[in-house]
Amino acid sequence: MRISVVGSGYVGLVAAACFAELGHDVVSIDNDAEKIGRLQQGEVPIHEQHLPELLARHRNKKLTFSTDLAGAVRQSTAIFIAVGTPATNEGDADLSYVESVSRAIALGINDYKIVVEKSTVPVFTSNWIRKVMLLDGAPADLFDVASNPEFLREGTAVVDFLYPDRIVTGADTARCADVLRQIYLPLTDGSYYRRGDRVAVPAPKNWPGAARIIATTTKSAEIIKHASNAFLATKISFINAVANICESVGADVKEVCEGIGSDSRIGNRFLSPGVGYGGSCFPKDLKAFRHVARENGYDFTLLSSVISINEEQRARFLRKVRTALWTLKGKKIAVLGLAFKGGTDDIRESPAIEIVKSLLKEGCEIRAYDPAANDRAREVLPSQGISCYESAYDAIKGADALVILTDWSEFAELDLDRVRATLTYPIVVDGRNLYDPAVMATYGFLYYSVGRPDVQPARRIEKSEKITAAVTGKVE
Ligand code: UDX
Ligand code: UDX
Description:
Layout: E1 2-6, H1 12-21, E2 25-29, H2 33-40, H3 51-58, E3 63-66, H4 69-74, E4 78-81, H5 96-106, E5 113-117, H6 125-135, E6 143-147, H7 157-162, E7 167-170, H8 174-188, E8 213-216, H9 218-249, H10 253-261, H11 282-295, H12 301-325, E9 332-336, H13 351-361, E10 365-369, H14 374-380, E11 386-388, H15 392-396, E12 401-404, H16 416-422, E13 427-430, H17 437-442, E14 446-448, H18 465-472
């Protein structure tokens, strides 16, 4: 099938590459000509595992890039809208990009097509898209508007697309539902997975062999997306609140998580306490969901609590750093992690960025490292007071303490002897519970984490050479 995907960001580019992987003929559209040019040259503007291989495999074959939206619409049967839906200051979703793209699509409806919301949008958006397209002259019987929300986690978006827990399609006519069914057929009939070596991404363990599709109405599909993200964020704020209680009473939240997570009704995923959730989805989606609920007569106070617990978690972590260091002014702090989570270069609504900005305001000197987000972080962080390094150990060198803010797997496998020798003081404040407190104690660290007792070193704190030299004037 001929498909256009409008918006070549984290959502749109992955969707375009995966539709091409399923065998469709895809045009990836964007109004950022510079980005389209880079994509045509073979560049990959975002950090997503497997995406470079998919783009290389399909570029200029099943997948092309263009800024000509009207032209792409005319030659497509399905047009997916995957443009940004950022939060406005009032907290609702800014749908102006969705509206302007819908109006442009209306001009290209020359035979039957479906216009599909891939971006996360509030309920009723599909009605609005239909209204504006009719106002712009699209023939009423030549198009339907559908909802096909994405459940892609950044960093694992390609796997999440090709091996989904479920595909949700929202359509209000049988004709539209059938087009959506055809688009995903290679996944739902399992034929994609039986392509043997041509499968670009290996199946996760215990993959059932075919994807499940849930065909519903547009409104239900729009609610499913918001409710899904709201529930996941609620789990995270819940476990952060429980972690805070554990700290007050001296319990261990990792053991509490094991105890509650082993109940199959709760499950142990999305129960990792830390510095709070971030990203371009949860923060804006919860505010948008609460807003559209209020507009339709329901005051979603639960989400207000989820949001405030999340915001408080960052302030609470800053207090934890103060507990570890006493005064902050002039202290050299090594920070590992700037992205909103491990596995991505995305810093939108990143708790790490917010905490770094607060530490800079306190007069700290920050030595930061993130495997993928350094460049994007430099664009939003002040030029004074912070340096970004190309390795964890370079950032740690000579720091008075180490703060871990993002759960990159490489941060959980540091050479602890080397960290101990490189830090001026053996102080680690871990916002992601990447280490076992008992292990940190044996390595001689003062170790602070989330929801677990602070630990003192199991052995005398040997001053690093630098301090010894400063005190005695000679290196032992
Ligand atoms: C974002 C959110 O992350 C996601 O939750 C939501 O479902 C969709 O919006 P994302 O891909 O991250 O998705 O957005 P972004 O990375 O900002 O990409 C949007 C792309 O659309 C950009 O490349 C932008 O240039 C393009 N765009 C925007 C257009 O092509 N036309 C427009 O009118 C506006
Ligand atoms: C999320 C949803 O998971 C995905 O289904 C939806 O399509 C888009 O939004 P994403 O925002 O990319 O995906 O990342 P996710 O892995 O969900 O993490 C969101 C935030 O929660 C991150 O800041 C992460 O660090 C945090 N998190 C996640 C926790 O703090 N604890 C957890 O246990 C899980």
